Amino acid sequence: MGRWGSALGCFWAVAVLLATPVAAASRTGADLQGECDANLRFSCAALGLRYKYGDGVPVDLKRAYALFQHACKEGLQYACGYAAEMLIEGEGVTRDRFAGALLMRRACAAGDANSCLSMRRLGIEATRSGRALRE
Questions:
Q1: For position 14, what pLDDT does the model report?
Q2: Which domains are assigned to the chain?
């Protein structure tokens, strides 16, 4: 684990809990799914985290990615950061470093500090040049 790994993970978890109107820890997977179906983007992202890490539900990276993508499309930037990292790492989706880097840049530019930290940790250039990631 790199020097950003554990601290960044804690930061993301706190960001999700603080940004979710009702603390995700007090919600069941079924509750979160119902809220997500009602287009509550925070619940979609919280459920995505549960599926990504297997918290009360089986690990399902494809479902986690889809939930992060949904929340991202609804404007939740930290969900965009999670979706971007999954694209870059190929977790639950076909690896696409370039698309992931573009998505993460967009989330960072929109003010998501975690995406900015992830860019640094993953070696993503902050510019809009043709190179998405340093090799």
A1: 57
A2: 5-122 (1.25.40.10)
pLDDT tens for residues 1-55?
344 455 555 555 555 554 554 555 677 878 898 899 988 899 999 999 999 999 8
Burial letters for 42-76: b for 16+ Cβ neighbours within 10 Å, e otherwise?
bbbbbbbbbbbeeeebeebbebbbbbbbbbbeeeb
Closest Cα partner for 72 from 33, 41, 36? 41
Predicted structure pTM score: 0.75
Q: How far is CA 80 from CA 3, 26, 115, 118, 135, in A?
A: 22, 24, 8, 12, 23
Give the per-residue pLDDT at 100.
94
pLDDT in tens, 60-80: 999 999 999 999 999 999 999
**What tokens appear for 15 in the block?**
């960001």
Q: How many CB atoms lie within 10 A of CB 93?
A: 19
